[in-house]
Each structure stands twice: as C-alpha cells, then as structure tokens.
C-alpha cells in the first residue's frame, strides 16, 4: 500500500522490474522532456547497449554506433517503447529473447548490419504487437521457417538487399502481412507455394533478383495485391495464367527482363490496372487482344524493345490509354502504323517514335512521315532507297568533287577582284561542260580526265592574270 501511495505522489509509473528502467538519461545520449520520451543515442560511439533507459521511453535511436552483441533482455523492461532503431551497427549475434520486456514495440529497425548472417527461431519472441520489421542489407542467407509465429501482428517486412536464393519459407501463412520487400537479393524462382496464405498482401517487390522462372499460379493467394514489381530479372516467358485472380492490381512492372512476346492471356483479369511496364525487354510481337481488358490503364511502357510494327488491332479499344511510351524501338514506318501517326496527332499521348526503316524515312520521327495515297485512297508505303546505281552520279544532281569546289573558290576570288562577269561565267560554263548524260562509264571517265587537265591549265592561267593585275 505504501509503494502505491508513493508512486501516486511522485507521478511515477509502476514498472515491471526495479532495475529495468530509471528516470535518468543514459550517458552519451540525449533525452527529450515530453511525456513520450525519445532517447537519441545515434552516432555516440557506443560499443554496447546502455544498461538503463528511462521508464517512459517511447522511442530509442541507436543508429550508427559499433554495437556487436545483443544479450537476453538487452533493453530491460520498457512498457511504453514503440520504436527501436539499431540500423548501421556491427551486430553479429542476437541472443534469443533479446527483445523480451518490450511488449508494446511496434517498429524494429535493424537494417545495414552486414554481419548478421543468421537469426534464431526465437529472435523476436514476445513481440506480439510488432507491425514493422526492417532487416534490409544484413547479409542474411535464410530465415528460419517458424521465426514469425510469435509476431502475428507483423504487416511490413523489409528484407531487401540480402543473399536469399529463394523466397523465405518463413513468410508463408503470414495472413496479416501487407507489404513485403525482397528486392536486390539472389532469388531464382517464384514457386507455386512461395506465397501461400498471403491473403492481405498489397505490395510485393521482387525486382532486381535473378528470377528465371515463375511457376503456374504462383500468385494465386495474393488476390489483394495492388503493386507488383518483377522488373530487372531474367525470365523470358510467363505462364498463361500468371496473374489470374489479381483483380485489384494497380501497377505491374515487368520491365528489364528477356520477354520476346506479350500473350493475350496474361492480363485478362486486370480490370483495375493503371500502370503497366513492359519496357527494356526483347519484345517483337504482341498478340491481338493482349490489352483489351485493361480498361483502367493510364500508362503503358513499351519503350526499349524490338518492336518494328504495332497493328491497330492490338490496341482495340484504344480509348483507355493515357500515356503510351514507344521510343527506342526499330520502327518500320510503313502503312501498318499510319494509324499510330494519326493517333499521335489527334490525342497527343505519344511522341518520339524515330523511324529505322524504310531508308527513305530513316531517322525521321513518325510525325514527320508523309504517307502518299493511290487514286483510290489507299496508303502507299514510303520507298526503300536504292543506293546502288549504274550511273556514276545520283540522278539529276551533279557529283560534288574537289575540282568544282576549287573552281567555285576561284570564281568568288575573281568577283572580289572586280574582274568582268563574263570571265566568271566563262569559268562556270567551262566547268559545267564536264557533266554529260548518256555516256558509257569508260567514255565519261576519259572525258572527265581530259577536262580536269584543261581546268587545271585554265585555273593556272587565271591565277597568273590575277597576280599580274596586282
């Protein structure tokens, strides 16, 4: 009774253990004075956990120290603690039960501890209210299968930039998990049972791994997923029903893989999909109707592929697309994509489509290509230029040679010196006499050689005249 009255008089909260927490701030740390006390011990040069923390601690920041070891009950009993951050330390071993006494903890950050390679099954025991766990960049090779049984409230798990070669089996059956970050690992496959029981998952990031195969119905239990990242992997094909059932998907990223075609079965359930990335693949063919069910699509990325043409039937109906990205493809700007030019001009939703063929329009943007028409109104493809010809010069245009360039300079020089216009015109007419039509190759070559000699003599004579006129 006396202890209770004393606590009331001193406004001290009852604690679970007399040694677990104190009223004073740890040495080398800074403690805020508000009721939700924040303990700031980051960059303090600590090599071990301080022995005592204030009882009312709401958050503790121990980032960027040199802590190596977490003993059992490393933080004592802190009934109000919500956030604990241990990122950027040298932690190599965590004793089972290290976080006992932190019954209210909702967020635990342990990212960027490069020496953590192993976790015990009971590492997170008693953290029944933990919602967010960050284990990114910890050099983990695996996670024990039953490690999350005692953290049923976990919703966000950050495990990117580790060494996983498969999706950890520990996440199976985590029905409350909503966000899973597994990017920048070494995962090679998404198996049919990798994501079982993920009934509330909304965000799944598997980008920048080494995934070469995705099993049939691998995402069948992820029917609430809204954001799915599979970009920058190495798979070249997908099962026909890869995304069946993912009706809430809003963003799907398949960019940076080895896909060669787009099947008309992949996106048949994605009525709410708004953004689709298919960029940086090797796609050269899109099946008719591949996008016909994407009635909510706002942005479609097909840039940096091997597309040469794009039939109008692929985009029927076309009203749904807000932005279409098609640059960095070897486009053949013929009548098959005349519809795309009209679409570009009418809706202004597409730009930067440089032509690779035919040669007559190579280098032009599709918007600058003019499609001729027959008398009946049918489109005519731009011509392929014939760069080989029997004539030594292009038709209707004299060849630019060293001789005529030189004589042009002489003519300008004579004009500057005030010589008569007749002399200049005589020079130009003389030069033009070297161009004959209808001669055979041998004859024209001999005549050109003879005329070059005459021009050299004549130009020399003009030089003497000009010199003497000084």
Distance between termini?
127 Å
Identify the overall geometry.
elongated
* Helix/strand class: alpha/beta
Whole-number average pLDDT?
Answer: 81
Query: What does the radius of gyration come to?
Result: 38 Å
Kindly estimate the percentage of residues that lie in beta strands according to DSSP.
5-15%
Low-pLDDT runs: 1-20, 388-470
Number of helical runs? 5
Total number of beta strands? 26
Organism: Anolis carolinensis
GO molecular function: signaling receptor activity
Pfam family, one: LRRNT
Signal peptide: 1-17
List keywords for this structure.
470 residues, alpha/beta, 14-stranded mixed beta sheet, two-stranded parallel sheet, 5 helices, 26 strands, elongated, disordered N terminus
């Amino acid at each position: 009774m006396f202890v209770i009255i004393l606590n009331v008089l001193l406004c001290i909260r009852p604690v679970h253990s007399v040694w677990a927490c104190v009223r004073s701030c740890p040495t080398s740390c800074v403690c805020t004075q508000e009721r939700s006390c924040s303990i700031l011990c980051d960059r303090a040069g600590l090599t071990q956990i301080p022995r005592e923390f204030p009882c009312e601690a709401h958050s503790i920041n121990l980032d960027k120290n040199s802590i190596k070891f977490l003993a059992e009950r490393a933080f004592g009993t802190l009934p109000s603690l919500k956030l604990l951050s241990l990122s950027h330390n040298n932690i190599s071993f965590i004793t089972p039960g290290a976080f006992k006494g932190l019954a209210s903890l909702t967020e635990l950050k342990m990212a960027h501890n490069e020496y953590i390679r192993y976790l015990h099954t009971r590492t997170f025991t008693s953290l029944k209210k933990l919602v967010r766990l960050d284990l990114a960049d910890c050099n983990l090779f695996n996670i024990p299968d039953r490690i999350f049984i005692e953290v049923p409230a976990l919703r966000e798990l950050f495990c990117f930039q580790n060494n996983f070669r498969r999706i950890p089996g520990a996440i199976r059956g985590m029905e409350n998990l909503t966000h899973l970050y597994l990017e920048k690992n070494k995962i090679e496959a998404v198996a049919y049972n990798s994501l079982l029981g993920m009934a509330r998952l909304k965000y799944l990031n598997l980008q920048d791994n080494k995934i070469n195969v995705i099993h049939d119905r691998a995402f069948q239990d992820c029917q609430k997923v809204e954001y799915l990242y599979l970009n920058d992997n190495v798979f070249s094909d997908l099962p026909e029903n890869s995304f069946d059932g993912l009706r809430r998907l809003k963003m799907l990223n398949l960019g940076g893989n080895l896909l060669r075609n787009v099947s008309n079965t992949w996106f048949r359930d994605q009525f709410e999909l708004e953004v689709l990335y298919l960029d940086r693949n090797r796609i050269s063919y899109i099946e008719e109707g591949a996008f016909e069910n994407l009635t909510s699509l706002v942005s479609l990325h097909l840039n940096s592929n091997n597309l040469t043409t794009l039939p109008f039937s692929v985009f029927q109906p076309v009203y749904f697309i807000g932005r279409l990205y098609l640059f960095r493809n070897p486009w053949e700007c013929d009548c098959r994509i005349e519809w795309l030019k009209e679409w570009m001009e009418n809706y202004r939703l597409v730009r930067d489509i440089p032509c690779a063929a035919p040669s007559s329009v190579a280098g032009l943007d599709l918007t600058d290509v003019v499609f001729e028409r027959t008398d009946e109104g049918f489109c005519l493809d731009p011509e392929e230029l014939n760069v080989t010809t029997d004539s030594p010069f292009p038709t209707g245009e004299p060849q630019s040679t060293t001789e005529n360039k030189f004589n042009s300079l002489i003519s300008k020089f004579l004009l500057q010196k005030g010589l008569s216009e007749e002399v200049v015109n005589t020079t130009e007419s003389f030069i033009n006499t070297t161009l004959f039509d209808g001669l055979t190759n041998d004859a024209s070559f001999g005549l050109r050689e003879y005329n070059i000699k005459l021009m050299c003599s004549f130009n020399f004579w003009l030089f003497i005249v000009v010199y003497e006129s000084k």
